[in-house]
């Protein structure tokens, strides 16, 4: 394997932050997908760096805007060819990469996975990384089960959580029955989107409007690396899109942080592994001929493991007010807004599977019934996680889910911060595009709602750390210019 290039970001900024953040334990922010505009990675670097933590990050290149942050101690760029254009990242390559980074860091570090690929691989190989990194103690297959679109449908069916009716295609013969059950248009999702190779040119989620379009996608299943899941389309509209962020703990208090979950809870590890390996039940019923059995992954419940139910250290729900692409993509503008139904669904999901760590959930309200449906579960921080930040205990250092996980994994108490409803998160580049883009029905993608006194958190701009914003703007404009040149005239 090619030695890892290092990027010297200069002396990191150090705020004077009181206990409980003075752990003396470094952190590694890990992202394996190629996305230099991922503002969540920058948010994680900043929040830990401002707390006095020595922050390392694995990034796609030395030109990534996050490498310009004064809060970053060292950037470790992935070797050339690490993520091949024709296939997914090999788990063994991930383990080797993390071993090499660990040798550079020189001591055990808290590992914060920022994308599904990182979360799935590090959890699956936690027993091999335990001496080098601190990770949430949980069954190794659980993050992969939740990130898998078909796996999530099965979990929701078993746990009684509202989820759009879905069908996992075994082949083209299942398409007519699926279309009859779900109707058109419908949503097509690759079951394991982290396996999509860059060269395939496939989107993880697509709205399709004809059986022919479904057949065209189904024919690409071999290139995609996972089956195609079809899901009933829920129309968007005002106040339909919601999300939840939470950090959960529950490991044996007497266990060493980062211990192999197979040693601490063999029953839970075996149960979740079996659930991940079994074909999931899809809600409300599989399409005729799909071959999906009428059994769900009820295993993995914390009550079976002896751990006790996970505890929510910090969490909150929010409303998506701008997205990119409009009404269908990532959160460009979000507002902290209590939603008891979303929060109850999140706690029910976590209790059912025994999840530990940071969890990001996406919901959409069914306009026909008013019910909130769980669309996606991401076993890592969402890019807008900094929306849910507040002073610990109401007057101490600021807490968010990344800081909460750091405290928990280093054995410290996590004081509960007060809720801050109305607080706004803004991803400047995507919010501008969304606000200026017309959407169906007239107008633009914006809600027109302004921020209130709870404050605004910007993804890129920070007065103590301005260089990433300028680096992002340069790269953003350069990419736009390159696309304009390639566009047919």
UniProtKB/TrEMBL annotation:
It comes from the Bacteria. Residues 66-86 are annotated as: Disordered. It comes from Streptomyces clavuligerus. This is MSP1_C domain-containing protein. SUPFAM superfamilies: Glutathione synthetase ATP-binding domain-like (SSF56059).
């Amino acid at each position: 394997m090619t030695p890892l290039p290092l990027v010297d970001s200069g002396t990191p900024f150090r705020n004077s932050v009181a206990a409980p953040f003075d752990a003396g334990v470094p952190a590694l922010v890990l992202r394996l997908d190629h996305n230099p505009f991922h503002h969540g990675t920058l948010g994680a670097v900043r929040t830990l760096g401002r707390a006095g933590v020595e922050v390392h990050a694995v990034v796609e290149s030395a030109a990534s805007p996050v490498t310009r942050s004064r809060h970053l101690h060292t950037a470790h760029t992935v070797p050339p060819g690490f993520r091949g254009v024709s296939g997914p990242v090999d788990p063994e390559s991930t383990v080797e990469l993390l071993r090499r980074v660990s040798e550079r860091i020189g001591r055990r570090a808290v590992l914060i996975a920022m994308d599904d690929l990182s979360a799935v691989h590090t959890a699956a190989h936690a027993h091999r990384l335990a001496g080098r990194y601190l990770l949430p103690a949980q069954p190794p297959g659980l993050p992969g089960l939740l990130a898998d679109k078909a796996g999530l449908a099965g979990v929701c069916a078993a746990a009684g959580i509202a989820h759009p009716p879905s069908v996992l295609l075994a082949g083209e013969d299942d398409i007519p029955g699926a279309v009859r059950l779900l109707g058109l248009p419908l949503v097509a999702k690759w079951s394991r989107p982290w396996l999509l190779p860059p060269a395939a040119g496939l989107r993880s989620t697509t709205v399709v409007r004809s059986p022919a379009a479904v057949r065209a996608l189904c024919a690409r299943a071999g290139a995609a690396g996972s089956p195609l899941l079809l899901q009933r389309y829920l129309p968007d509209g005002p106040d339909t899109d919601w999300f939840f962020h939470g950090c959960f703990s529950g490991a044996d208090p007497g266990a060493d942080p980062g211990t192999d979950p197979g040693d601490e809870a063999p029953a839970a590890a075996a149960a979740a592994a079996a659930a991940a390996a079994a074909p999931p039940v899809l809600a409300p019923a599989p399409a005729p001929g799909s071959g999906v059995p009428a059994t769900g992954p009820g295993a993995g419940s914390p009550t079976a493991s002896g751990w006790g139910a996970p505890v929510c250290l910090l969490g909150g729900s929010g409303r998506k007010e701008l997205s990119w692409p409009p009404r269908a993509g990532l959160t460009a503008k979000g507002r902290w807004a209590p939603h008891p139904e979303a929060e109850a669904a999140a706690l029910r999901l976590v209790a059912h599977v025994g999840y530990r760590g940071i969890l990001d959930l996406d919901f959409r309200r069914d306009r026909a019934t008013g019910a909130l449906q769980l669309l996606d579960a991401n076993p890592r921080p969402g890019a807008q996680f900094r929306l849910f930040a507040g002073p610990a205990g109401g007057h101490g250092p600021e807490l968010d889910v990344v800081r909460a996980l750091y405290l928990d994994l280093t054995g410290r108490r996590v004081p509960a911060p007060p809720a801050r409803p109305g607080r706004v998160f803004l991803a400047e580049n995507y919010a501008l595009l969304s606000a200026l883009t017309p959407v169906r029905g007239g107008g633009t993608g914006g809600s027109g709602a302004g921020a209130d006194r709870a404050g605004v958190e910007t993804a890129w701009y920070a007065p103590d750390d301005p260089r990433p914003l300028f680096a992002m703007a340069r790269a953003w404009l350069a990419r736009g210019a390159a696309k304009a040149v390639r566009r047919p005239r």
